[in-house]
Amino acid sequence: MQKFNIVKQAIAGTMESSDLQIILDRNEGNGIEIELKSSVENQYGRRIREVLLDTLKNLGIEDAKLTVTDKGALDCTIVARTIAAVHRAADATDKIDWEGLEEWNV
């Protein structure tokens, strides 16, 4: 799986029910920072963060700032939106390695 370098801010997802919106930006040398807004944060906040962090790790992202607004998204939606945001932020939407994604995203 290729590693990504964030070059610009990117957005993925919507504010619709059962979705989430991710705004992903650079965070040079400061690790991963997640600002999560969710009506179910008390129940599922830890799991949402875990899915976000695992997906970023699998994509080779070590430094990023995420602003996430959750509207009840399932894990598979969180993964899909994170993958889309990373590809957009890395300006790599024309270089999606579907087989590489399939190695860990099953």
List the helices and strands and how they pair.
Layout: E1 10-13, E2 20-25, E3 32-38, H1 41-58, E4 64-70, H2 75-89, H3 98-104
Parallel strand pairs: 3-4
Antiparallel strand pairs: 1-2, 2-4
Helix pairs in contact: 1-2
Task: Give a quick set of tags describing it.
globular, alpha+beta, 106 residues, 3 helices
Question: How would you summarize what this structure contains?
Answer:
With 106 residues, the protein is an alpha+beta fold. The protein has helices spanning 41-58, 75-89, 98-104, and strands at residues 10-13, 20-25, 32-38, 64-70.
Protein described:
This protein is of the alpha+beta class. It is 38% helix and 23% strand. The chain has three helices and four strands, in the order βββαβαα. The protein has helices at 41-58, 75-89, 98-104, and strands at 10-13, 20-25, 32-38, 64-70. A four-stranded mixed beta sheet has the order 1-2-4-3, with helices on one face. A hairpin with a 6-residue loop joins strand 1 (10-13) and strand 2. Helix 1 (41-58) packs across helix 2. The longest helix is centred in the middle third of the chain and has 18 residues, at 41-58. The model has no long low-confidence stretch (mean pLDDT 93).
